[in-house]
């Protein structure tokens, strides 16, 4: 048996023997084959992926979604039982540190999870389409999804330079979206729509931008082009994945203002993914806080900012720059997220939490409601945890 070399100070359980690696890889191939076979079925009857919205005022409902990555060193549960709604005409902000599952949640909604390793394992994503039907995206065949992706659900990516194709002119790339998704579109009508969208997002001299290559534009202009492209088919839902991270502060403000204007004009909804709490406070109606693949708190923007309940959310709030010159050090949450391949059975925040109690090391906490819109997963607010706290006070 070959054993990997032990590195001093590193947990032995992180190392796998060659035999273990082979076993995991074999098991993964079996699981992946099963999922891929299911996805590649032809002529899937519509009844299999038609469903009903729980609340007809929502555009999207995530319901206990699990998206896993089957890697050679183990299974990474990137999204581990996520449930939240995106109501019509509202902005839902999804926050959390890198690797907490924000982007994988949005990629699951677009059916763009990196296959074959990445697979939606269970749960559903209900989507209220413009044709009046409600689809479960997790069961939808690929060819049907092509009609929704880019047309009804559009995505604005983080870095426009890598999302735009460097060898095609802006006009060609934008026209293609219209030609693909708008029935009966001609090259002339596609160009007219592209020009209209470039005007809508406030691009000066749209004719010149239409004929330009991505590298000829500034970062802010490229992000405007991405927004224009996302809007060109009148989507019901825009997923904005860190849309301002690559931009400087003044351009950030302009892009956020533009996104809000555009959302009002098309009466669409936005799923805004970011780790910037300032952006969330400015833009969102509802906030979902994720940690290590799970939702640990959700509520309206007022509830999350004025009365955060989960110690992680409280820590996030404390780590915002306060503008007070006396506070010369920023607060940071100590410690690290647990190893994603070997998640504990108890609260994932236990090793970093200043309020951790005995019960927190024994079981994962339930989501507790504080209002019809606000809930958090923490032992501080119920059962044994509440009892432990009260005993501590006596
Ligand atoms: Fe902290 Fe316990 Fe709440 Fe987890 S459940 S956040 S460890 S108090």
Q: What does it look like?
A:
This protein has 394 residues and is of the alpha/beta class. Helix content is 34%, strand content 20%. It contains 13 helices and 12 strands. The strands form 2 sheets. It has an 8-stranded mixed sheet, with helices on both faces. A 4-stranded antiparallel sheet has the order 2-1-4-5. A hairpin with a 5-residue loop joins strand 11 and strand 12 (375-377). Bound molecules: iron/sulfur cluster. Iron/sulfur cluster (SF4) is lined by residues 310-311, 347, 349-350, 353, 355-357, 360, 365, 378-380. Residues 310-311, 347, 349-350, 353, 355-357, 360, 365, 378-380 line the site of iron/sulfur cluster.
| Helix share bin | 25-40%
Shape field: globular
Number of helices: 13
**Could you say which small molecules are bound to this protein?**
iron/sulfur cluster
Poorly predicted ranges: 1-10
Structural class: alpha/beta
Largest sheet: 8 strands, mixed
How many β strands by DSSP? 12
Euclidean distance between termini CA atoms? 56 Å
Whole-number mean pLDDT = 88
Order of helices and strands: HEEEHEEHEHHHHHEHEHEEHHEEH
Content of β-strand = 15-25%
Lay out the secondary structure:
Layout: H1 18-39, E1 58-71, E2 74-87, E3 91-95, H2 102-109, E4 118-128, E5 134-136, H3 142-148, E6 153-156, H4 160-163, H5 170-181, H6 187-200, H7 206-210, H8 219-231, E7 237-241, H9 249-266, E8 269-273, H10 277-283, E9 286-291, E10 294-300, H11 301-306, H12 311-318, E11 367-369, E12 375-377, H13 383-393
Parallel strand pairs: 3-8, 3-9, 6-7, 7-8
Antiparallel strand pairs: 1-2, 1-4, 4-5, 9-10, 10-12, 11-12
Bound molecules: iron/sulfur cluster.
Iron/sulfur cluster binds next to loops.
């Amino acid at each position: 048996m070959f054993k990997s070399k032990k590195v001093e100070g590193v947990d032995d359980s992180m190392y796998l023997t060659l035999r273990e690696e082979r076993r995991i890889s074999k098991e993964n191939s079996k699981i992946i084959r099963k999922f891929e076979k299911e996805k590649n079925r032809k002529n899937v009857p519509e009844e299999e992926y038609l469903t009903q919205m729980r609340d007809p005022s929502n555009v999207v409902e995530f319901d206990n979604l699990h998206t896993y990555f089957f890697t050679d060193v183990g299974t990474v549960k990137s999204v581990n039982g996520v449930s939240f709604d995106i109501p019509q005409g509202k902005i839902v902000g999804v926050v959390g540190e890198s690797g907490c599952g924000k982007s994988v949640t949005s990629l699951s909604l677009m059916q763009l999870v990196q296959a074959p390793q990445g697979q939606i394992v269970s749960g559903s994503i209900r989507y209220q389409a413009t044709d009046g039907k409600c689809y479960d995206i997790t069961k939808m065949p690929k060819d049907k999804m092509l009609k929704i992706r880019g047309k009804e659900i559009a995505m604005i990516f983080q870095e426009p330079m890598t999302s735009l194709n460097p060898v095609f002119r802006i006009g060609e790339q934008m026209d293609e979206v219209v030609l693909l998704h708008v029935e009966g579109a001609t090259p002339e009508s596609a160009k007219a729509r592209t020009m209209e969208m470039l005007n809508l997002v406030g691009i000066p001299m749209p004719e010149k931008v239409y004929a330009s290559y991505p590298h000829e534009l500034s970062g802010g202009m490229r992000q405007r082009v991405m927004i224009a492209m996302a809007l060109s088919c009148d989507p019901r839902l825009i997923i904005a994945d860190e849309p301002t991270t690559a931009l400087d502060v003044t351009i950030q403000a302009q892009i956020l203002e533009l996104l809000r204007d555009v959302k009002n004009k098309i009466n669409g909804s936005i799923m805004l993914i970011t780790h910037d709490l300032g952006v969330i406070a400015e833009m969102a109606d509802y906030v979902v806080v994720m940690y290590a693949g799970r939702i640990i708190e959700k509520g309206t923007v007022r509830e999350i900012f004025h009365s955060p309940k989960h110690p992680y959310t409280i820590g996030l709030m404390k780590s915002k720059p306060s503008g007070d010159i006396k506070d010369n050090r920023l607060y940071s949450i100590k410690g690290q997220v647990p190893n994603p391949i070997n998640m504990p059975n108890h609260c994932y925040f236990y090793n970093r939490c200043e309020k951790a109690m005995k019960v927190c090391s024994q079981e994962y906490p339930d989501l507790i409601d504080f209002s019809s819109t606000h809930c958090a997963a923490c032992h501080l607010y119920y059962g044994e945890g509440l009892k432990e706290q009260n005993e501590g006070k006596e």
